[in-house]
Design goal:
By secondary structure, the chain is mainly alpha-helical. It has one domain. Helices cover 42% and strands 10% of the residues. The chain contains 4 helices and 4 strands; from the N terminus they run E-E-H-E-H-E-H-H. The strands form 2 sheets. A two-stranded antiparallel sheet has the order 1-2.
Length: 120
């Protein structure tokens, strides 16, 4: 399909044969569609406690440091969760902020975290 996809850089010094994941732009309509279809299958197979672990950039650098882009990512991830489970709570570890401090400055951290309602 027509989709806005970006290739990320290598992970942990591996070449792109073993890393370099692709990311679907969070503003692309397919993002919500694919994310909610995936989560619906997870809930169907395993049930839910309404808490979902999603680590968007664990040891990976996002394709843009623009706070608007990072907020769009978290809004889109959360929208795919709440499309399946209106009571969804997003659980995310904080390692990504420590593993790449040259990227994750206060503006980027705030944008990613504030794209989701407080407490969710």
């Amino acid at each position: 399909p027509q989709a806005n996809v970006t290739i990320l850089g290598p992970w942990a010094h591996f070449n792109c044969s073993y890393s370099c994941s692709y990311i679907l732009d969070p503003r692309d309509p397919l993002f919500l569609q694919i994310g909610s279809l995936y989560l619906a299958q997870v809930v169907k197979q395993f049930g839910t406690d309404h808490i979902y672990n999603t680590d968007t950039f664990n040891e990976m650098t996002p394709p843009s440091s623009d706070p608007a882009y990072l907020a769009a990512i978290s809004r889109s991830v959360f929208a795919s969760m709440t499309a399946v489970d209106p009571d969804a709570v997003w659980l995310m570890q904080g390692w990504l902020f420590y593993s790449d401090p040259s990227f994750w400055k206060p503006a980027q951290i705030q944008a990613l975290l504030h794209g989701v309602p407080l407490g969710r």
